[in-house]
Write a structure and sequence with these properties.
Blueprint: H1 8-15, H2 20-27, H3 31-37, E1 45-48, H4 51-55, E2 67-71, H5 75-78, H6 89-97, H7 101-112, E3 118-122, H8 129-138, E4 144-148, H9 155-164, E5 170-174, H10 181-190, E6 195-197, H11 212-225
Parallel strand pairs: 1-2, 2-3, 3-4, 4-5, 5-6
Helix pairs in contact: 2-3, 7-8, 8-9, 9-10, 9-11
Keywords: Ubl conjugation pathway
Domain F-box: 9-46
Pfam families: F-box-like
């Protein structure tokens, strides 16, 4: 029996065992397999491990997406989370080229994936509080949000959780050095049903760039006023 003689359900099951590149390569072989590749039901879960993967045309974003993970493990990518003064010219160029990659991708997720249930972001040093705000507003069913070493995230993101995270049950903000203890305690007070973990966040040294301290103080005051 040829693979194309299998019914749609069997083909979807077969595709589900393949990674994104293998799915795309198989889809190139005939029109029927291309239709399976383009079936939204195949894309309920996506995992990415490098900025380049986000730019490949080997996956689909749509309402079927329920679980998304963007985690940088490569040593080449980890340089995006080191201090500016430690970076050599190659590292700075690499970070600059990928500065908006994740945030632009998350904007697409906001627009196309309203049924997202879980999001994990690890080592995504360029995402901002606004990214988290937009995700919470556009993905009202989000139950799990896990952030690790996302260095630009501040108490503003925690404020967004309080205001727009009605469905959230799990929140991790580990190693996010610009999160304060006051912000963490406010989430625990306002949202007691959320399982909150903030390993090392409030105990790390925050950024000391001009205006950063003032911005964090304003965020803390806003949280207190809620």
């Amino acid at each position: 029996m040829h693979i194309t003689q299998l019914n749609r359900e069997c083909l979807l099951h077969l595709f589900s065992f393949l990674d994104k590149n293998s799915r795309k390569n198989l889809a190139k072989t005939c029109h029927k397999l291309l239709e399976v590749f383009q079936d939204p039901l195949l894309w309920s879960l996506l995992n990415f491990h490098s900025p380049v993967e986000l730019k490949k045309n080997n996956f689909l974003l749509g309402p079927a997406l329920k679980h998304l993970s963007i985690c940088w493990y490569s040593e080449r990518v980890k340089v995006c989370n080191t201090e500016d003064w430690m970076k050599n010219s190659f590292q700075k160029d690499f970070c600059k080229r990928h500065e908006n990659t994740v945030s632009d991708f998350l904007l697409d997720v906001c627009n196309r994936c309203p049924n997202l249930l879980s999001l994990t972001l690890s080592g995504c040093g360029h995402i901002t509080d606004d990214c988290i705000l937009q995700l919470l507003k556009n993905c009202p069913n989000l139950k799990s949000l896990k952030l690790e070493n996302c260095v630009r995230i501040t108490d503003y993101a925690l404020q967004a959780v309080i205001l727009h995270g009605a469905s959230l049950r799990t929140l991790h903000v580990d190693f996010c050095r610009n999160i304060t203890q006051a912000g963490i305690e406010r989430v625990r007070e306002k949202c007691p049903s959320i399982m909150l973990r903030a390993e090392r966040s409030a105990s790390m040294i925050p950024d000391s760039k001009p205006g950063k301290k003032l911005m964090l103080e304003k965020a803390s005051r806003k949280l207190v006023q809620l």
